[in-house]
Design a protein that fits this description.
The protein is α+β, with helices and mostly antiparallel strands and 344 residues long. It folds into three domains: 73 residues, no CATH class; 97 residues, no CATH class; 124 residues. Helices cover 69% and strands 10% of the residues. Strands 1, 3, 4, 6 and 7 form a five-stranded antiparallel sheet that branches. Strands 2-5 form a two-stranded antiparallel sheet. The protein starts with a helix and ends with a helix.
C-alpha cells in the first residue's frame, strides 16, 4: 500500500508545483503533456490501489491454517512464518510433501545447510508429521505451534495492484515523452515550412507592392488567394496572413497586426518582414519596394542553400539502402557461381 501512497504524493507534488509555477519544464514537456502524465499516473494508481485493497492485503493466521489438496497433484504455496513473534521468514510449503525428494535433497545439502535452512527443514518435517497424525485426505494443515513455540502464518498479498500502479507511472512518463517528441517534430516541420514558404511569399508581396497596392491591400489579396485555393496541407505563414487580415478588419491597428504577425511566425525572417512594414507605416519609407526586393533575393539564395543541404542529407540517408541492394546483387551473382564450382 505504501507504494500507492508514494505515487499519490509524488503526482500531487508535481501537480501543485506545476500549477504554482515552481516547476519549470520548458523544452521538456508542455501543459498538455504534463496533464496527460498526471491523468494516466493517477488513474493507474487508483486501479492498482483498488486491486491491492481487495486482494493485495497480507493475510495472517495465528491458529494454524488449512489448505485444500488438489486432485491434479502436488502444488507449492508461499508463506511467511513467525516463531514466537520473531521476524517472519519465507518458506515454501509443498502440498502434499514429497518425502523421497525431500530426503534426497537433505542428504545432498546436509553439510552445506545454513542455520536458517536447517530451521526451515525442521519446520517442514514438523508439518509433515503433523499431517501424518491428521490423516485428512482432503486438506493439508499448518500447525499453530512447534516445540512449544507459537507459529504465526502469513500469506503474502497479491502484488498485481502494485505492479499495475508502477506500470501506469512508467506508461504515463513514456506517453509524456512521446507527446513532447511529437510536438517537437511538429514544431520543427512548421519552422522548416515557414523558411521554405518565405521566398515565394515575400516575392509575391513585393510584386503586389510594385503594382501599386498598399501593404494592407496586398495582405488582403494574398489572404483571399490562399483561402480560394484551400490547399490540402495548410501553410502556416499564409494562415497567419489570413489571421492578420481578420484582426485588421475587426478593428486592430494595422501596425499592431503586423507586429503580431511577426511574433506568431516566430522566425527571424518574418520578424524582419514585419519590421519593414511597421517602419513603412511609421516613417513612410519610399524605398520599401527596394528593401522588399532585396529581402526576396536573399530569401531565394537562402532557400537554394537549404535545398542543397536537404539534398545532401537525402543522399546520405539513401546510402544504407544502396549498400543493402549491393549486397543482394553480389549474393545473387556469387552464390550460383560458388554452387556451380563446388557442384563440379
Amino acid at each position: 500500500m505504501w507504494v500507492h501512497v508514494v505515487i499519490f504524493m509524488a503526482t500531487a507534488g508535481i501537480g501543485i508545483a506545476w500549477k504554482a509555477g515552481w516547476l519549470r519544464l520548458d523544452g521538456f514537456a508542455d501543459r498538455e503533456s504534463i496533464r496527460l502524465f498526471l491523468i494516466v499516473a493517477v488513474c493507474g494508481n487508483c486501479l492498482g490501489m483498488a486491486l491491492t485493497m481487495t486482494s493485495g492485503v497480507r493475510e495472517i493466521y495465528t491458529d494454524g491454517y488449512r489448505l485444500e489438496k488438489e486432485t491434479t497433484g502436488a502444488y507449492t504455496e508461499e508463506f511467511e512464518v513467525s516463531v514466537d513473534g520473531q521476524d517472519a521468514e519465507k518458506i515454501d510449503v509443498q502440498i502434499p510433501e514429497k518425502e523421497s525428494e525431500e530426503g534426497q535433497a537433505a542428504e545432498k545439502t546436509e553439510k552445506e545447510e545454513s542455520p536458517e535452512e536447517s530451521r526451515k527443514k525442521e519446520l517442514r518435517e514438523a508439518i509433515e508429521k503433523y499431517n501424518e497424525i491428521k490423516k485428512d485426505p482432503d486438506y493439508y494443515y499448518l500447525p499453530k505451534d512447534w516445540k512449544g513455540q507459537k507459529l504465526e502464518w502469513q500469506k503474502p498479498g497479491d502484488t498485481t495492484g502494485t505492479l499495475i500502479a508502477a506500470l501506469s507511472l512508467f506508461a504515463a512518463f513514456v506517453l509524456m515523452l512521446k507527446k513532447t517528441r511529437e510536438e517537437q517534430e511538429a514544431s520543427a516541420k512548421r519552422a522548416e515550412q515557414l523558411l521554405m514558404d518565405y521566398p515565394s511569399l515575400i516575392l509575391k508581396f513585393t510584386l503586389l507592392i510594385q503594382a501599386g497596392m498598399t501593404a494592407r491591400r496586398a495582405f488582403q489579396k494574398m489572404a483571399s488567394d490562399y483561402m480560394r485555393s484551400q490547399p490540402v496541407k495548410g501553410h502556416f505563414a499564409y494562415e497567419m496572413i489570413v489571421l492578420a487580415c481578420r484582426e485588421m478588419d475587426s478593428g486592430v491597428a494595422e501596425l499592431e497586426a503586423y507586429r503580431r504577425f511577426g511574433e506568431r511566425c516566430g522566425q527571424m525572417k518574418y520578424k524582419t518582414f514585419s519590421t519593414i512594414l511597421i517602419q513603412n507605416l511609421q516613417k513612410g519609407s519610399r524605398h520599401m519596394a527596394d528593401l522588399l526586393e532585396q529581402e526576396a533575393m536573399e530569401a531565394w539564395d537562402e532557400r537554394k542553400r537549404k535545398a542543397r543541404v536537404l539534398g545532401e542529407a537525402a543522399a546520405t540517408k539513401l546510402l544504407i539502402p544502396m549498400i543493402m541492394m549491393l549486397i543482394v546483387v553480389m549474393a545473387i551473382i556469387m552464390i550460383p557461381a560458388f554452387l556451380s564450382f563446388y557442384g563440379q
